[in-house]
Amino acid sequence: MIKLSNLKIPAKAGEEKLLSALAQKTGAKGIKNLQILKKSVDARKKTDVNLIYSVAFSADNEKEVLKRCKEASEYKPNEGYKFPYKAQSDEPVVIVGMGPAGLFAALTLCEAGARCILIEQGKAVEERTEDVEKFWREAVLNTSSNVQFGEGGAGTFSDGKLTTGINDARIPFVFDTFIKFGATEDIKYLAKPHIGTDVLKTVVSNMRKHIISLGCDVRFSTKLTDIEITDGAVTGCTLQDENGEYTLKTNHLVLCPGNSARETFRMLSKRGVVTSCKNFAVGVRIEHLQKDIDMAQYGESSRYGTLPHSDYKLAAHLENGRTVYTFCVCPGGYVVAAASEEGGVVTNGMSEYARDNVNINGALLVTVSPEDFENDTEKAMAFQREIEEKAYVGGGENYSAPAQLVGDFLNKRPSFKAKSVVPAYKPSVKWGNMWEILPKFICESLAAALPEMGKKIKGFDNPDAVLTAVESRSSSPVKIDRENGVSVNVKGLYPAGEGAGYAGGIMSAAVDGIRCAEVVCKNLEI
Questions:
Q1: pLDDT at 446 over 80
Q2: CA-based nearest residue to 408, from 419, 400, 393, 395
Q3: Same domain membership, residue 238 and residue 305
Q4: Domain count, the chain
Q5: pTM for this structure?
Q6: How far is C-alpha 50 from the chain's CA centre?
């Protein structure tokens, strides 16, 4: 087979011209077994937007193609990652949390032969979806089953983005696993892959069924309330379900909390497990019309219907020492209620696979550091809770979210209604003034950054764009300190994933869960 990189197809032509463009570029005859290896958009010149492909294919005249085309080379597919361990354990490995880290730790451990018990304080994704939709519809919050807690983790009600800044041999395995359980094949080659919340629910459910088929004991609505430590090592854990508390004996506890697991962080601190305060960020969600961002990014090529909805990645480094940046951008998406505690408002972004809503939204965040909280994890969590409670009051104390137009925000005046951008937040918004709700340094930083970002993407600071507060759960403020995959001071405790401070999205959390499983298997062999 042959590999060809950097095959350009004008946006106006679209992917239907892929085969003819490939033949014209290479002179290949009898093309077959065509595989797309990578697909991206080159929009650096708005007057010359192209789809860029890397492909592999067979041809009747491969030797001739390799001689003729300098960009062509022999294609040798990678063998891919294989979990390198087999494991047996008399006592169960207990895995806490069914986000990406917990699911992939459980999957790989069970496939390796370990006996596992998988704990989740929330519900299975089918029941969880009902609870979340009821919250969005009726403002009735279930504090154990919501956007933050439940099977699949917080990423289940997001865009299902699979972009990551890490480079790891386990990544193709994660992609293949998602595809095996229901994701579309295109996640393997899109430059910015996503599953979509609607598809991700099916993927997560299928993963759980497979894990159960391997003998894993999966327990929903079961909360970790304590850990048993003897002579510096885990010897058990206390769990609570609808029937009360009980204790499990285990020497291996894989802890994959979400970044909203505040009670768990406090329990660990009480038990003397070393934790530390880490960098995180807070801010708002910003919404624009998708067509306006598409025009700003693609120019007239946005009208052809051949390009994916555009997104953005922006940052502004300010004189006050803060950085304002965008995160978790959801093209064609919604801003949704994501609270997990009563009396607080939290926002998140969500898109379905089709990304077909009229708005695009993204988190617009201001960095905070451990120094802001005297390196105190309790103070960092208290800061999060305080701004969520202020947003709750500012939204009318019914889980509506405070909202303001960008133009009004920059002029420090309240907003009273939407203009061209209608906010998509569920259940509803209450118009007002962010300067009266959010900390002064947050507002000042956002106000300084918006015009700068507007210079990078035309219309980003559009006066009609909508800000919705508060985005406070983008990452964990707490890190469970570890070395070589194990707690620095408690043997048999394996912190993993985003909530533990070791990941920044679905992909990196899944990879970290696999790494954690590898460490557990090594220790099971000792």
A1: yes
A2: 419
A3: no
A4: 3
A5: 0.95
A6: 28
* Paired strand residues for 190: 39
- On whether the CB atoms of residues 523 and 510 are closer than 8 A, the answer is no
Asked if residue 238 and residue 156 are part of one domain, the reply reads yes
Distance of CA 225 to the CA centre of its chain: 26
pLDDT tens-place string over residues 290-335 = 999 999 999 999 999 999 999 999 999 999 999 999 999 999 999 9
* Domain span at 233: 93-276+477-525
- Provide the 10 A C-beta neighbour count for residue 174: 24
> What is d(CA 246, CA 410) in angstroms, rounded to the nearest whole number?
54
Q: Is residue 154 part of a domain?
A: yes
Same domain, 272 and 284: no
Q: What is the domain-level CATH number for residue 31?
A: 3.30.70.2700
C-alpha distances (whole Å) from 386 to each of 277, 325, 382, 475 are: 17, 22, 6, 16
How many CB atoms are located within 10 Å of the residue 249 CB? 12
**Which residue is listed with tokens 């403020």?**
477
Does 86 reside within a domain? no
What tokens appear for 477 in the block?
A: 């403020």
Q: Determine the longest span between alpha carbons in the chain, in angstroms.
A: 73
Which amino acid belongs to residue 519?
Answer: V
3-state secondary structure (DSSP) of residue 231: coil
**Predicted confidence (pLDDT) per residue in 234-274, tens digit:** 999 999 999 999 999 999 999 999 889 999 999 999 999 99
